Amino acid sequence: MPRSRLTVWLTGALVLALAGSSAWGAGAVPKAGGVLNAMHREDPPSLSIHDESTISVNWGVMPCYSNLVVFNPQRGHESPATIVGDLAEKWAWQDGGRTLVFTLRPGVRWHDGRPFSSADVKYTFDMVREAPGTTARLRLNPRKLWYAQVQAIEAPDPGTVIFRLKRPQPSLVMMLASGYSPVYPAHIPAAELRTRCVGTGPFKLKEYRPGELIEYVRNPDYFKKGLPYLDGIRFIIIKERGTRIAALQAGRLDVAMPSETTIPARDQLRRAVPAMVFFETSRNDNDNILLNFKKPPFNDARLRRAVSLAIDRRQYITAVRQGAALPGAAMLAAPWGSWGLRPAELGDLPGTGDPVKQKAEARQLLSEAGFGPGRPLRVAVSTRTLASYIDQATFVIDQLKQVGIETSLEQVESAVWYGKMTRGDYTIASNTTGIGADDPDPNLYENFLCNSPRNYTQYCNPDIERMIDEQSQTLDTGRRHRLVAEIQKRLELDGARPVLGWNIDYFAMWPYVRNLVPHQVQYNFGRLEQVWLNR
After folding, report:
1. How do residues 71-129 score in pLDDT, each as one tens digit?
2. d(CA 34, CA 114)
3. Residue 114: which region, alpha, beta or left (left: phi > 0; alpha: psi -120 to 50)?
4. What is the C-alpha to C-alpha distance for residues 383 and 389, in angstroms, rounded to an integer?
5. CA atoms of 381 and 291, how far apart (whole Å)
6. d(CA 255, CA 276)
7. Which pLDDT value is given to residue 501?
């Protein structure tokens, strides 16, 4: 499996190295001290990771928290083999995969000085799964169904947590390692964590000034001896895309933000700063179309298929992403992902065949549904007020116009975007969906089950749900791959969430930033506890 590729331009020479198994700058002795100035593109919808579903939260909030387990920060490609302990010292499966027991680190304290214990773990994941009798609630709960197979969580003593499952689910540890799975303090109301942060992580929140910065200072009582190296982190909020890149180029920022270094941005930085370092890697997010299954006109399957056929995936990748994306279906495409469909399997899916023929078929379906030149279908395309979202929505609007669908653009602020989508308060939307781990369970349960809060299209297919459950408990890897491939084909044919492409990032940083290894899943490498500055 390919790892993140590191590209360094030094005095005009191109140096290529594999960075997936070792840190950029490995071998040098880390220096303590200094403050990292990191790019941020917007005010996060809140500071509560469990409430939200965007890199705009993980990237600015992960330094505050800890997980039970995490993906090794120095390994760019994530897998079950790269999972290491965080708040948990060790863990083990029992009862044929129906019981998962964690042994916790002793002596860990929250940033306010209170002791951490197994009660905090139980509180957190009972809240997320909305366990019977649990009164704590999240405002939004996008990952509730990650834990649908958890029957009970027990805390028999302060240093032990037991997850008891209804049936085996090997992917549970992968989901617990995601940046979307921090442990929250049981003594702080969940609502308060939307505007403040009390964690056990390497950095303590100093100040959040909306529109300006999120600032952290080193946690002197961090449970990992000698870490973090940095004295602090400043996430500088710059909302305009060109201004963000200019700030990085000028040295006012030390590192980019995941998903923000496009090919044009990379080329601009490369010309201006020959020593700039770039990591080429996936993001584990895909651009897609949301069609509201419950709201006219897209409660008509013919119109859903017409939209999917109208949008040329290959042209999208070249015109909108300048080649920085891969075609695919519901799972991350190879070479970055382990579960995506092969190119040959994509040929018969909507939007991937002959664009002339597929657009003609789209016009025919529109005609059958009663729409045409004399009675055009008119809809508003909703999207977030971020440059990358507007880029893709503009392309979608142009493609739909070519088959006779007249559209307008509705721009939606990030703070209300997820609530709007969860309520189904839209007709068609141009969207980006990120997945917290390269595994079928966090993707399929979160986005395609009938009652999932993040199943924004309200797609519901009992046969697909049965297949999702079957793959989740299948221990035979080959059989599980075949099941997941069939699920992906069915989802595309049903128009559940038509995928346009899987995005590639060229994460940029100045060469004095060391031990920051971008992962192929952008939501999981923002802890920054091992990062140091060589200056």
Report:
1. 999 999 999 999 999 999 999 999 999 999 999 999 999 999 999 999 999 999 999 99
2. 28
3. beta
4. 6
5. 10
6. 10
7. 96
